[in-house]
Amino acid sequence: MTTAETRRAPRQAERPVTRRRYLMRRFGVLGAFLGVLGLLYLVLFTSVLGVRGVDVLGNTVLTADEVREVAAVESGSPLVRLDIDAIGVRVATLPRVRSVEVRRSYPSTVEIIVVERSAVAVAVGPDGFHLVDGDGVDFSVETAAPPGLPQVTTPDTATTKAAVQVLAAVPEPLRPLVVAVAATTVGDVRLTLTDGRVVKWGGVDESGRKAAVLGPLLTRPGKTYDVATPDFPTVA
Fold first, then answer.
1. Are 71 and 97 a contacting pair, CB within 8 Å?
2. Residue (of 113, 71, 118, 116) closest to 97 by Cα position
3. Rounded to an integer, what distance in angstroms lies between the CA atom of residue 183 and that of residue 202?
4. 3-state SS of the chain?
5. Residue 99 sits in a domain of what CATH number?
6. Which of 62, 165, 171, 206 has its CA 20 to 30 A from that of 88?
C-alpha cells in the first residue's frame, strides 16, 4: 500500500461514522420535537391536566354549589386553556357578588374567590325588604328586615347611592342612632334618628365637614339639625 493509499484509508473509514452520528443527531432532534408536541397535546387537548375540582373561597351567604353552577366549569377541561375571565364574568352576574377572582391551581383545580356585598341599609318594597350595599346596589330581597339596618327611601338609583354615601360619612358613634335615610334628590338627603330628630344633610359634598359639626350640634336641644351648609349649621 502506498503512502497516499494509507492516508486515504482512515478518511474513508471515518465517513460512515460521521454520517451515523449525523443521522443520530437528526433523529434525536426529531424525537425531542415530537416529544414536545406530544406533551403540548396532552396539556392542551386532553384531560390529563384537566379540571378535577372547583374550590369556592370567601363566600358566607352564597353556597359553593350556587357559585359552581353559574361558573359552569366543565369537568375535564384542559386547565391551561380555561377562559378564567369568562368564568369571572359569569360569577359576577350573581347579585350578591361584589367582586370575583378566578385562578388556576395546578395540576387540576380552579379556585374562585368571591367577595360578597354587605348590606348597609334596607329599602321596603312590595315584594319584601331590599338589601342595599355601600355602593347603592340593591342585591337581595328578604322576607324580613335584618336588625340594625336603617331604612332608605329614595326615588331612583342615583339618590340611593347618595343616601348610602351620606350614611357612610356619619361619624361611627352616631351611626347606630340613624334609623332612616331619605332623599328626594341627590342634594337633599335627610337622616332620622332613633328619638325622632331629623338631620338635614344636603348633598354628599363637604361630608367630612358636615360630620365634624354634627356631633356638637346634636348636643343642643331641637328637632331639626341642618348641616347642609356646614359653616352655618342651624337647629330648629
1. no
2. 116
3. 9
4. CCHHHHHHHHHHHHHHHHHHHHHHHHHHHHHHHHHHHHHHHHHHHCCCCECCEEEEECCCCCCHHHHHHHHCCCCCCEHHHCCHHHHHHHHCCCCCEEEEEEEEECCCEEEEEEEECCEEEEEEECCEEEEEECCCCEEEEECCCCCCCCEEECCCHHHHHHHHHHHHHCCCCCHHHEEEEEECCCCCEEEEECCCCEEEEECCCCHHHHHHHHHHHCCCCCCEEECCCCCCCEEC
5. 3.10.20.310
6. 165
The answer to whether 98 and 115 have CB atoms below 8 angstroms apart is yes
Q: Do 130 and 216 reside in the same domain of the chain?
A: yes
Same domain, 181 and 192: yes
Beta-bridge partner residues of 212: none
First to last CA, the chain: 130
Question: Which position has the higher pLDDT, 9 or 198?
Answer: 198
For residue 8, the enclosing domain spans: 1-45
Percent of the chain with pLDDT over 70: 80
* Residue range 134-193, pLDDT digits in tens: 999 999 999 998 999 999 999 999 999 999 999 999 999 999 999 999 999 999 999 999
| Cα–Cα nearest to 83, from 102, 98, 70 | 102
Rounded distance between C-alpha atoms, residue 20 and residue 12, angstroms: 14
- Taking only the tens place, the pLDDT of each residue in 113-135 is 999 999 999 999 999 999 999 99
Domain end marker among 85, 116, 147: 116
**Residue 209: how many other CB atoms lie within 10 Å:** 15
